[in-house]
Amino acid sequence: MTMKTQHFGRIVREKREQLGLSIRKAAELAGLSDRGLELIELGDSDPKLSSVLRIAAALHLDLGDIESCVPNSIFVNY
After folding, report:
1. Largest CA distance in the chain
2. What's the distance, CA 19 to chain centroid?
3. Do 36 and 45 touch, CB atoms closer than 8 A?
4. Is the dihedral of CA 11, 72, 27, 45 positive or negative?
5. Position 77 confidence tier, pLDDT thresholds 50, 70, 90
6. Best CA proximity match to 55, nearest among 23, 72, 71
7. Where are the domains of the chain?
8. Phi and psi, residue 13, nearest 5°
9. What does the pLDDT look like over 11-70, one tens digit per residue?
10. What is the pTM of this model?
């Protein structure tokens, strides 16, 4: 995966841990599977824009802070 994907995953994991959420609870809040969120946190999955937005909302992430680390390809046509 790309460096941006790995960076996004680190931001997600750090924020989830800061909020005291388990992967299961954070995934539930974002409407993702536990494994799906785990792969994103590990940087082993390129998330779709819809997933990025759901994660951002669930973890109260500021989109301005994560835009630079999300693969540009997910913003195509948006």
Report:
1. 35
2. 14
3. yes
4. negative
5. very low
6. 23
7. 3-69
8. -60, -45
9. 999 999 999 999 999 999 999 999 999 999 999 988 888 899 999 999 999 888 787 776
10. 0.84
Percent of the chain that is helix, strand, coil (3-state, to 5): 70, 0, 30
Cα dist from 77 to 5, 26, 63, 72, whole Å: 19, 28, 17, 11
Closest-CA residue to 65 (of 76, 78, 50, 55): 55
Which residues, including other chains, have CB under 8 Å from residue 9's CB and lie 6 or more apart?
40, 41, 42, 43, 44
CATH code given to domain 3-69: 1.10.260.40
Would you state the pLDDT for residue 70?
64
What is the signed CA dihedral for 33, 36, 38, 44, rounded to 10 degrees? 180
